[in-house]
Amino acid sequence: MNARQDRHDAGFGVSLTISTVIHLAVFLLLLWWGQLFPPTMDVQETYYVDVVNLPVANPRSGSPTQKGDNAEAPPPPPTPEPPLSMPSPPQPGLKGRAETVKKTGKAEQNEASSTEAFAERMAKLENKAASQHEEATMEQLRKKLKATGSGRAGMPAGSGSGAGSDYTAYVFSRLKDAFYQTISYTSKNPEVDVHLYIDSDGKVIRQKIEKSSGDHTFELAVLRAIDKAGDKLVPPPNHKVFEGAFIFKPQGISRNKQ
Amino acid sequence: MKPFIRLMLIVVLVLPGVALGAQSGYIEVTAPGNRQLKLAVETPHAQSSTSPNANAAKEMAEVIAFDMNMSGTVNADVKEPLPLAGGLMFGATDFAPWRAAGNDLLVRGEYSITGEALTVEFRLYDVLNDKMLTAKRYLGKNRDLRRFAHSFCDEILLRMTGEQGAFTTHIAFISTQFGNKEVAIMDWDGRNLLPLTRNGSINLDPDFSPDGREIIFTSYKRGNPDLYKRALSSTVEIPVSRRKGLNITGAWSPDGTKIALSLSKDGNSEIYTIDRDGGNPKRLTFNPAIEVSPVWSPDGSHIAFISDRLGKPQVFVMDASGGNVRRLTTAGAYNVTPRWSPKGDRIAYARMGGGGEFHIHVINADGSGDTQLTTAGSNENPAWSPDGRFIAFSSKREGPAAIYVMRADGSGQVRVSQGKGSATQPAWGSR
Question: Which residue of A has its CA nearest to B32?
């Protein structure tokens, strides 16, 4: 036990020394290599464009950018003119800001010669920004429509859950379409009375059979129809839980025949 | 006091209005026609860890398709399997191709056969709603393969109609395939035929006990038509009634404690009840005419039987104690072999026509609604399935008598007995 405690590990110091020597050697080698072959690559021109706050400008009227030397005193924004090349909706958030394009020092020398190319590039960027803005607007519109329960073409936006209300008519229409696909029965005068509850997200949360003629096959057909109709229902108006009562029966069979 | 009366008046006046309003709030949803749902029975997949057995898979699919087609609730077809990556348990079923093919329901299965051990899992899907309706897993031996498929059909029917099927039940009948007229037993679809008696004599009128474990039948093996009983699991035939004369057409009571039969120990054949061991005979009919073929109503309160007390054999009904006898059939000159339906609302019987051929009829228990169900050949001895969905009967429409099964409305008549010889007098076992 004591013999084991007396043992001394001298390996760490040696390893540290060797590692230091190797690293130093590699560093010196790299330093020597850099002196022999100095970097001669030209710095590429790099443009940083803030596409969110893109200035509104006519690319043909010149560059909206400002030179680095005049950064302290920005020129007044260019007079807005109706765009000729790209029609776009009014974009109040995209008014000119001169600081959006930076250039490296070397790039300044080539500015005059590349004005045309730059204008073309700007046109592309502006186009891209416009489409982004359009997409954002559409998204806002979609959210708004979803919130008001009228997210689909032809879907009702009316309120109420009583007979005759738009949403009831909509649910009825969905149920009827689905019932066409599922109707099946084994008795003479099947009939099922159902209470249906649809939550604020348009999901059928409860289907209660209030009364049934006892034809289980018909009951199953009704439940399948509700399942089918309940798939992708639009939410009820004002995001309130919808409650509706429906009587299912085969066409042409009187309710009081039984 | 006045406010209370006022309140009561308001309640009395307003409540009916509210109720009426609620009722009138119902919206009627209707659709035309009565669709027969289309069921795709996919040939079951072999589990990935076991080698496939195409014959076994095909047989299971065919059993399910046959049972479900016979049920009349769906139109079933066997379909080639579609890919099932991940197995039935973890794989996801793509319903689109099944839906595109016009199917409403889908049965998918997976099996593994290792030596004699068989594991099968079946699932029933609602293709329209991408939803599983029921699922069952069965563990057993290879010989249980058909029974497992039948059993799942019982589940399907339960899910669709609320009533369990009778596809795992058996039919006992009289067969000449094994020599003389022996009692034999088969699955409801005619498979797995087994002779029960091997006494080389004439055996007649088998009837299952309510628990399905025993059979009574009349045998001439000692010269006299005596009533015997035997368990399906045994070969011992125990005499129940060996009284002088006829001991024929025995029928178990619904509770299994009594047997109604026709005895001629007092001269002519009369209806009696005896205990299940043959003791305590009680005579129910007192008439010089011939009385045979007693059958119990499902609740055990009545007995239907055949009597020629009015000149020709007709179906009569009486209380189980023997009183209150009344004639049930009024049409036809020769009506025999009544069988009460499991629900108690109807009685099936065989009526002889002008040409001497018999046809199966059903009549309501109150004597109304007499309906002929068969038209081809000569058809006798109807027997209800335990769920009342089918009627088995013997028919000579294709030569020697064979056992056929049809739906209770007479549709879907199909021969089920196989093999040589004649097959007559079917009796349907309980579930």
Answer: A251
Same domain, A75 and A135: yes
The β-bridge partners of A161 are none
* A172 shares contact with chain B (CB less than 8 Å): yes
In this structure, whether the domain defined by B37-161 belongs to CATH 3.40.50.10070 is answered with yes
Which residues in chain B have Cβ-Cβ distances shorter than 8 Å to A231? 129
3-state secondary structure of A179: helix
The fold of the B170-428 domain, in CATH, is Neuraminidase (2.120.10)
Q: What are the two backbone dihedrals, phi and then psi, of residue B93, each rounded to the nearest 5 degrees?
A: -85, 130
Domain with CATH 3.40.50.10070 in chain B: 37-161
pTM: 0.71
How many domains does chain A divide into? 2
Whether residue A202 is found in the same domain as residue A119: no
Q: Which of A115, A147, A179 is the last residue of a domain?
A: A147
pLDDT at A66: 39
Q: Say how many CA atoms lie within 13 Å of A139 toward its Cβ.
A: 6
State in Å, rounded, how far the first CA of chain A is from the last one. 99
Q: Are residues A174 and A140 in the same domain?
A: no
CB contact (8 A) between residue B29 and residue A247 = yes
Query: Which tokens in the block code for residue A91?
Result: 């974009």
Give B-chain residues touching A193 at CB under 8 angstroms.
Answer: 26
Q: Give bridge partners of residue B230 from the DSSP assignment.
A: B215
A227 contacts on B by Cβ (under 8 Å) = 126, 128-129, 131
B132 neighbourhood in chain A, CB within 8 Å: none
Could you say which of B28, B36, B128 has the minimum Cβ distance to residue A224?
A: B128
- Which A positions 204-243 lie with beta carbon below 8 A of chain B? 216-217, 219-220, 224-225, 227-228, 231
For B282, residues 6+ apart whose C-beta sits below 8 A from its C-beta are: B272, B273, B274, B322
Residue reference for tokens 């009840």: B273
> CB distance from B203 to chain A under 8 Å?
no
Residue-number span of the structural domain to which A253 is assigned: 166-257
Q: What digits encode the pLDDT tens for the residues A45-77? A: 555 544 444 444 444 444 444 333 443 444 444
Cβ atoms of B379 and B397 within 8 Å: the answer is yes
**A99 shares a domain with A132:** yes
Reported ipTM exceeds the 0.85 cut: no
The CATH number of residue A194's host domain is 3.30.1150.10
pLDDT tens-digit profile of A239-255? 888 999 999 999 876 54
- CATH 2.120.10.30 intervals, chain B: 170-428
